[in-house]
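Re: that backbone. C-alpha coordinates:
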Protein backbone atom coordinates (compact mmCIF):
# COMPACT_ATOMS: atom_id res chain seq x y z
CA UNK A 1 0.00 0.00 0.00
CA UNK A 2 3.02 2.33 0.20
CA UNK A 3 2.65 3.49 -3.40
CA UNK A 4 -0.98 4.42 -2.80
CA UNK A 5 -0.12 6.30 0.38
CA UNK A 6 2.45 8.36 -1.51
CA UNK A 7 -0.22 9.34 -4.00
CA UNK A 8 -2.56 10.26 -1.15
CA UNK A 9 0.06 12.65 0.19
CA UNK A 10 0.15 14.43 -3.15
CA UNK A 11 3.74 13.52 -3.97
CA UNK A 12 3.14 13.24 -7.70
CA UNK A 13 3.28 15.97 -10.34
CA UNK A 14 0.14 17.20 -12.02
CA UNK A 15 -0.65 16.10 -15.53
CA UNK A 16 -0.95 18.91 -18.08
CA UNK A 17 -3.08 19.55 -21.13
CA UNK A 18 -0.40 17.80 -23.21
CA UNK A 19 -1.76 14.53 -21.82
CA UNK A 20 -5.45 14.89 -22.60
CA UNK A 21 -7.01 14.60 -26.03
CA UNK A 22 -9.86 17.05 -25.55
CA UNK A 23 -12.63 17.36 -28.10
CA UNK A 24 -12.46 20.89 -29.56
CA UNK A 25 -16.25 21.07 -29.53
CA UNK A 26 -16.01 21.69 -25.77
CA UNK A 27 -15.03 25.26 -26.67
CA UNK A 28 -18.33 25.72 -28.51
CA UNK A 29 -20.39 24.37 -25.60
CA UNK A 30 -21.32 21.17 -27.43
CA UNK A 31 -21.05 19.10 -24.22
CA UNK A 32 -22.49 21.74 -21.87
CA UNK A 33 -26.11 21.76 -20.70
CA UNK A 34 -27.98 24.36 -22.73
CA UNK A 35 -29.05 26.34 -19.66
CA UNK A 36 -25.38 27.01 -18.88
CA UNK A 37 -24.93 28.39 -22.38
CA UNK A 38 -27.99 30.61 -22.04
CA UNK A 39 -26.81 31.84 -18.64
CA UNK A 40 -23.48 32.77 -20.18
CA UNK A 41 -25.22 34.92 -22.78
CA UNK A 42 -27.46 36.62 -20.19
CA UNK A 43 -24.57 37.37 -17.83
CA UNK A 44 -22.49 38.81 -20.65
CA UNK A 45 -25.26 41.33 -21.33
CA UNK A 46 -26.46 42.20 -17.84
CA UNK A 47 -23.57 41.52 -15.38
CA UNK A 48 -20.34 41.30 -17.41
CA UNK A 49 -18.08 42.35 -14.52
CA UNK A 50 -19.48 40.20 -11.71
CA UNK A 51 -16.99 37.83 -10.08
CA UNK A 52 -18.23 34.47 -8.80
CA UNK A 53 -16.64 31.65 -6.85
CA UNK A 54 -17.71 28.14 -7.84
CA UNK A 55 -16.86 25.25 -5.51
CA UNK A 56 -17.05 21.50 -6.08
CA UNK A 57 -17.84 18.73 -3.59
CA UNK A 58 -19.34 15.26 -3.24
CA UNK A 59 -20.96 13.31 -0.40
CA UNK A 60 -18.79 10.26 0.38
CA UNK A 61 -15.43 9.19 1.71
CA UNK A 62 -13.56 8.80 -1.56
CA UNK A 63 -10.25 8.92 -3.41
CA UNK A 64 -10.17 12.05 -5.53
CA UNK A 65 -9.25 11.87 -9.20
CA UNK A 66 -9.76 14.09 -12.21
CA UNK A 67 -8.41 17.38 -10.83
CA UNK A 68 -5.50 17.51 -13.28
CA UNK A 69 -7.88 16.86 -16.15
CA UNK A 70 -10.26 19.58 -14.98
CA UNK A 71 -7.49 22.14 -14.55
CA UNK A 72 -6.21 21.36 -18.05
CA UNK A 73 -9.77 21.64 -19.36
CA UNK A 74 -10.15 25.11 -17.83
CA UNK A 75 -6.76 26.27 -19.07
CA UNK A 76 -7.66 25.07 -22.57
CA UNK A 77 -11.29 26.15 -23.01
CA UNK A 78 -12.12 28.91 -20.53
CA UNK A 79 -12.05 32.46 -21.80
CA UNK A 80 -9.23 34.47 -20.24
CA UNK A 81 -7.93 31.46 -18.25
CA UNK A 82 -5.02 33.43 -16.80
CA UNK A 83 -7.50 35.70 -15.04
CA UNK A 84 -9.15 32.80 -13.21
CA UNK A 85 -8.04 31.79 -9.73
CA UNK A 86 -8.13 28.01 -9.21
CA UNK A 87 -7.46 26.21 -5.94
CA UNK A 88 -7.58 22.44 -5.81
CA UNK A 89 -6.71 19.25 -4.04
CA UNK A 90 -4.66 16.68 -5.99
CA UNK A 91 -5.44 13.39 -7.65
CA UNK A 92 -5.05 10.66 -5.06
CA UNK A 93 -6.10 12.74 -2.07
CA UNK A 94 -8.54 11.12 0.32
CA UNK A 95 -11.63 13.29 0.64
CA UNK A 96 -14.57 13.47 3.04
CA UNK A 97 -18.28 14.11 2.44
CA UNK A 98 -19.00 17.74 1.54
CA UNK A 99 -15.29 18.63 1.55
CA UNK A 100 -14.46 21.29 -1.03
CA UNK A 101 -12.07 19.77 -3.57
CA UNK A 102 -11.76 22.73 -5.93
CA UNK A 103 -12.77 26.38 -6.25
CA UNK A 104 -12.72 28.58 -9.34
CA UNK A 105 -13.03 32.35 -9.06
CA UNK A 106 -13.55 34.68 -12.00
CA UNK A 107 -16.16 36.08 -14.39
CA UNK A 108 -18.97 33.55 -14.82
CA UNK A 109 -19.08 33.94 -18.59
CA UNK A 110 -15.43 32.92 -18.79
CA UNK A 111 -15.86 29.43 -17.31
CA UNK A 112 -19.38 28.76 -16.01
CA UNK A 113 -20.46 26.84 -19.11
CA UNK A 114 -17.91 24.15 -18.15
CA UNK A 115 -19.62 23.34 -14.84
CA UNK A 116 -21.35 20.14 -15.97
CA UNK A 117 -18.30 18.92 -17.85
CA UNK A 118 -16.20 19.43 -14.71
CA UNK A 119 -18.74 17.58 -12.56
CA UNK A 120 -18.70 14.67 -15.00
CA UNK A 121 -14.91 14.41 -15.10
CA UNK A 122 -14.59 14.46 -11.32
CA UNK A 123 -17.48 12.03 -10.84
CA UNK A 124 -16.21 9.38 -13.24
CA UNK A 125 -12.53 9.58 -12.38
CA UNK A 126 -13.17 9.66 -8.62
CA UNK A 127 -15.65 6.78 -8.86
CA UNK A 128 -13.15 4.54 -10.65
CA UNK A 129 -10.27 5.53 -8.36
CA UNK A 130 -12.40 4.93 -5.26
CA UNK A 131 -13.76 1.62 -6.51
CA UNK A 132 -10.23 0.41 -7.30
CA UNK A 133 -8.87 1.65 -3.98
CA UNK A 134 -11.55 -0.29 -2.09
CA UNK A 135 -10.84 -3.45 -4.08
CA UNK A 136 -7.09 -3.09 -3.54
CA UNK A 137 -7.71 -2.62 0.18
CA UNK A 138 -9.87 -5.76 0.23
CA UNK A 139 -7.08 -7.68 -1.52
CA UNK A 140 -4.74 -6.84 1.37
CA UNK A 141 -6.90 -8.07 4.25
CA UNK A 142 -4.52 -10.92 5.09
CA UNK A 143 -1.64 -8.49 5.50
CA UNK A 144 -0.16 -9.25 2.10
CA UNK A 145 -1.03 -6.93 -0.77
CA UNK A 146 -2.22 -9.08 -3.66
CA UNK A 147 -2.02 -7.41 -7.08
CA UNK A 148 -5.20 -6.22 -8.77
CA UNK A 149 -5.30 -6.06 -12.57
CA UNK A 150 -7.73 -3.56 -14.11
CA UNK A 151 -9.60 -5.44 -16.86
CA UNK A 152 -12.36 -2.98 -17.72
CA UNK A 153 -11.78 -2.77 -21.46
CA UNK A 154 -14.87 -4.80 -22.39
CA UNK A 155 -17.21 -3.09 -19.95
CA UNK A 156 -17.35 0.42 -21.39
CA UNK A 157 -16.77 2.45 -24.53
CA UNK A 158 -13.18 2.32 -25.73
CA UNK A 159 -12.85 6.10 -25.63
CA UNK A 160 -12.93 5.93 -21.82
CA UNK A 161 -9.93 3.64 -21.46
CA UNK A 162 -7.16 6.20 -20.99
CA UNK A 163 -8.96 8.14 -18.28
CA UNK A 164 -10.30 5.05 -16.54
CA UNK A 165 -6.87 3.44 -16.61
CA UNK A 166 -5.30 6.51 -15.04
CA UNK A 167 -8.00 6.60 -12.36
CA UNK A 168 -7.41 2.90 -11.67
CA UNK A 169 -3.69 3.66 -11.34
CA UNK A 170 -4.46 6.42 -8.83
CA UNK A 171 -6.65 3.94 -6.94
CA UNK A 172 -3.82 1.41 -6.75
CA UNK A 173 -4.34 -1.08 -9.59
CA UNK A 174 -1.09 -2.94 -10.28
CA UNK A 175 -1.55 -3.32 -14.03
CA UNK A 176 -3.98 -2.62 -16.86
CA UNK A 177 -5.27 -4.71 -19.73
CA UNK A 178 -4.71 -2.32 -22.64
CA UNK A 179 -2.02 0.10 -23.77
CA UNK A 180 -4.62 2.90 -23.80
CA UNK A 181 -5.31 2.41 -20.10
CA UNK A 182 -1.65 3.11 -19.41
CA UNK A 183 -1.31 6.06 -21.79
CA UNK A 184 -1.50 8.87 -19.24
CA UNK A 185 1.07 7.39 -16.88
CA UNK A 186 3.56 5.92 -19.31
CA UNK A 187 3.32 2.13 -19.00
CA UNK A 188 2.11 -0.65 -21.32
CA UNK A 189 -0.81 -3.05 -21.06
CA UNK A 190 -0.20 -6.60 -19.88
CA UNK A 191 -1.93 -9.92 -20.50
CA UNK A 192 -1.33 -13.41 -21.77
CA UNK A 193 -4.10 -15.40 -23.40
CA UNK A 194 -7.85 -15.18 -23.98
CA UNK A 195 -10.18 -18.11 -24.54
CA UNK A 196 -9.95 -17.39 -28.27
CA UNK A 197 -6.31 -18.53 -28.36
CA UNK A 198 -7.18 -21.90 -26.85
CA UNK A 199 -10.15 -22.26 -29.19
CA UNK A 200 -7.83 -21.83 -32.18
CA UNK A 201 -5.81 -24.78 -30.89
CA UNK A 202 -8.94 -26.95 -30.64
CA UNK A 203 -9.12 -26.55 -26.86
CA UNK A 204 -5.58 -27.87 -26.32
CA UNK A 205 -4.15 -25.79 -23.47
CA UNK A 206 -0.64 -27.24 -23.85
CA UNK A 207 -0.47 -26.46 -27.57
CA UNK A 208 -1.73 -22.93 -26.95
CA UNK A 209 0.88 -22.36 -24.25
CA UNK A 210 3.64 -23.77 -26.43
CA UNK A 211 2.77 -21.37 -29.22
CA UNK A 212 2.58 -18.49 -26.76
CA UNK A 213 6.06 -18.98 -25.32
CA UNK A 214 7.52 -19.50 -28.79
CA UNK A 215 6.09 -16.16 -29.89
CA UNK A 216 6.66 -14.29 -26.60
CA UNK A 217 9.58 -16.02 -24.87
CA UNK A 218 10.27 -13.05 -22.57
CA UNK A 219 6.75 -13.04 -21.11
CA UNK A 220 5.66 -14.79 -17.95
CA UNK A 221 3.52 -17.75 -18.98
CA UNK A 222 0.10 -17.68 -17.34
CA UNK A 223 -2.22 -20.39 -18.66
CA UNK A 224 -5.97 -19.78 -18.86
CA UNK A 225 -7.35 -23.06 -17.56
CA UNK A 226 -11.16 -22.86 -17.61
CA UNK A 227 -11.72 -23.19 -21.38
CA UNK A 228 -12.76 -26.84 -21.08
CA UNK A 229 -14.52 -26.16 -17.76
CA UNK A 230 -12.00 -28.48 -16.09
CA UNK A 231 -9.62 -26.04 -14.44
CA UNK A 232 -7.67 -28.47 -12.30
CA UNK A 233 -7.10 -30.98 -15.08
CA UNK A 234 -5.91 -28.32 -17.53
CA UNK A 235 -3.78 -26.58 -14.87
CA UNK A 236 -1.97 -29.86 -14.18
CA UNK A 237 -1.51 -30.50 -17.90
CA UNK A 238 0.15 -27.11 -18.28
CA UNK A 239 2.26 -27.51 -15.15
CA UNK A 240 3.50 -30.96 -16.16
CA UNK A 241 4.34 -29.73 -19.66
CA UNK A 242 6.12 -26.51 -18.73
CA UNK A 243 7.35 -26.97 -15.15
CA UNK A 244 9.20 -23.92 -13.87
CA UNK A 245 8.36 -22.00 -17.06
CA UNK A 246 4.72 -21.83 -16.00
CA UNK A 247 4.38 -18.74 -13.83
CA UNK A 248 0.69 -19.06 -13.08
CA UNK A 249 -2.77 -20.23 -14.06
CA UNK A 250 -5.86 -18.07 -14.46
CA UNK A 251 -9.35 -19.30 -13.61
CA UNK A 252 -12.22 -17.40 -15.25
CA UNK A 253 -15.11 -19.87 -14.95
CA UNK A 254 -18.48 -18.38 -15.87
CA UNK A 255 -20.95 -17.81 -13.03
CA UNK A 256 -23.42 -19.98 -14.96
CA UNK A 257 -21.07 -23.02 -15.03
CA UNK A 258 -20.03 -25.69 -12.53
CA UNK A 259 -16.49 -26.96 -13.05
CA UNK A 260 -16.15 -30.64 -13.96
CA UNK A 261 -14.15 -31.18 -10.77
CA UNK A 262 -17.43 -31.04 -8.84
CA UNK A 263 -19.14 -33.35 -11.33
CA UNK A 264 -16.46 -35.93 -10.50
CA UNK A 265 -16.70 -35.17 -6.78
CA UNK A 266 -20.38 -34.69 -6.15
CA UNK A 267 -19.98 -35.67 -2.50
CA UNK A 268 -18.53 -32.20 -1.98
CA UNK A 269 -21.73 -30.47 -3.08
CA UNK A 270 -24.52 -29.23 -0.89
CA UNK A 271 -22.90 -26.70 1.41
CA UNK A 272 -21.76 -23.97 -1.01
CA UNK A 273 -22.53 -22.42 -4.38
CA UNK A 274 -20.41 -24.41 -6.88
CA UNK A 275 -20.89 -22.04 -9.81
CA UNK A 276 -18.12 -19.94 -11.29
CA UNK A 277 -14.82 -19.23 -9.58
CA UNK A 278 -15.62 -20.32 -6.05
CA UNK A 279 -13.44 -20.82 -2.99
CA UNK A 280 -13.72 -24.61 -2.95
CA UNK A 281 -12.48 -24.85 -6.54
CA UNK A 282 -9.45 -22.67 -5.76
CA UNK A 283 -8.66 -24.64 -2.57
CA UNK A 284 -8.74 -27.84 -4.63
CA UNK A 285 -6.64 -26.32 -7.42
CA UNK A 286 -3.95 -25.16 -5.00
CA UNK A 287 -3.82 -28.59 -3.35
CA UNK A 288 -3.59 -30.39 -6.71
CA UNK A 289 -0.70 -28.20 -7.84
CA UNK A 290 1.13 -28.49 -4.52
CA UNK A 291 0.69 -32.27 -4.36
CA UNK A 292 2.65 -32.58 -7.61
CA UNK A 293 5.35 -30.14 -6.54
CA UNK A 294 4.12 -27.11 -8.47
CA UNK A 295 4.13 -24.80 -5.47
CA UNK A 296 5.62 -22.02 -7.59
CA UNK A 297 2.58 -21.77 -9.86
CA UNK A 298 0.47 -18.78 -8.86
CA UNK A 299 -3.30 -18.63 -9.12
CA UNK A 300 -5.00 -15.69 -10.81
CA UNK A 301 -8.79 -15.38 -10.65
CA UNK A 302 -11.16 -13.22 -12.69
CA UNK A 303 -14.80 -13.06 -13.69
CA UNK A 304 -17.29 -10.96 -11.76
CA UNK A 305 -15.08 -10.04 -8.83
CA UNK A 306 -16.15 -7.15 -6.61
CA UNK A 307 -14.92 -5.61 -3.38
CA UNK A 308 -17.37 -7.78 -1.42
CA UNK A 309 -16.40 -10.98 -3.20
CA UNK A 310 -12.67 -10.35 -2.78
CA UNK A 311 -13.29 -9.61 0.90
CA UNK A 312 -14.97 -13.01 1.33
CA UNK A 313 -12.08 -14.75 -0.44
CA UNK A 314 -9.49 -13.00 1.69
CA UNK A 315 -11.37 -13.62 4.94
CA UNK A 316 -11.54 -17.29 3.97
CA UNK A 317 -7.80 -17.39 3.15
CA UNK A 318 -8.57 -18.60 -0.35
CA UNK A 319 -5.15 -19.18 -1.99
CA UNK A 320 -5.41 -16.50 -4.67
CA UNK A 321 -2.26 -14.65 -5.73
CA UNK A 322 -3.77 -12.05 -8.04
CA UNK A 323 -7.23 -10.68 -8.89
CA UNK A 324 -8.46 -9.52 -12.30
CA UNK A 325 -11.37 -7.11 -11.91
CA UNK A 326 -13.43 -5.31 -14.53
CA UNK A 327 -17.04 -4.14 -14.57
CA UNK A 328 -17.47 -3.54 -10.84
CA UNK A 329 -14.74 -0.89 -10.96
CA UNK A 330 -16.57 1.22 -13.54
CA UNK A 331 -19.76 1.90 -11.59
CA UNK A 332 -20.38 5.60 -11.00
CA UNK A 333 -20.51 5.65 -7.21
CA UNK A 334 -19.49 9.27 -6.58
CA UNK A 335 -21.34 12.33 -7.92
CA UNK A 336 -19.90 15.83 -7.79
CA UNK A 337 -21.77 19.12 -7.62
CA UNK A 338 -20.56 22.57 -8.58
CA UNK A 339 -22.17 25.56 -6.83
CA UNK A 340 -21.70 29.29 -7.12
CA UNK A 341 -21.27 30.32 -3.48
CA UNK A 342 -19.70 33.80 -3.58
CA UNK A 343 -20.73 36.83 -5.64
CA UNK A 344 -18.18 39.63 -5.74
CA UNK A 345 -16.63 38.22 -2.58
CA UNK A 346 -19.89 38.04 -0.60
CA UNK A 347 -21.99 35.03 0.33
CA UNK A 348 -24.64 34.33 -2.30
CA UNK A 349 -25.65 30.72 -2.80
CA UNK A 350 -28.56 28.37 -3.22
CA UNK A 351 -30.37 27.75 0.07
CA UNK A 352 -28.59 24.93 1.91
CA UNK A 353 -25.25 25.60 0.24
CA UNK A 354 -22.48 27.86 1.48
CA UNK A 355 -18.85 28.63 0.89
CA UNK A 356 -16.74 25.97 2.59
CA UNK A 357 -13.08 27.02 2.72
CA UNK A 358 -10.67 24.12 2.78
CA UNK A 359 -7.12 24.75 4.07
CA UNK A 360 -5.94 21.72 2.11
CA UNK A 361 -6.60 23.40 -1.23
CA UNK A 362 -3.53 24.52 -3.15
CA UNK A 363 -3.55 27.48 -5.50
CA UNK A 364 -2.90 26.37 -9.07
CA UNK A 365 -0.25 28.49 -10.73
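Recovered sequence:
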Amino acid sequence: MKEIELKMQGEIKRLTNKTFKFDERIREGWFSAVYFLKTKEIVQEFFPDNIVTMQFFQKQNAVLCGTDEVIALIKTFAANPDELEISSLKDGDKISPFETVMTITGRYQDFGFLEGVIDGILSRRTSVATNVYNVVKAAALTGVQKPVIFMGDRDDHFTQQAGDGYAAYIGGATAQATHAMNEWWGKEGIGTMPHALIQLFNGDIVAACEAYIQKYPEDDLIALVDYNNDAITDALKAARAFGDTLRGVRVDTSRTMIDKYFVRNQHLLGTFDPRGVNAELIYALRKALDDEGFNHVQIVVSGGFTEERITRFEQGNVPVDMYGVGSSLLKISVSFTGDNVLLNGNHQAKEGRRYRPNPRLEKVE
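The chain has two domains: 2-129+332-363, 142-330. The CA atoms of residues 52 and 346 lie 9 Å apart.
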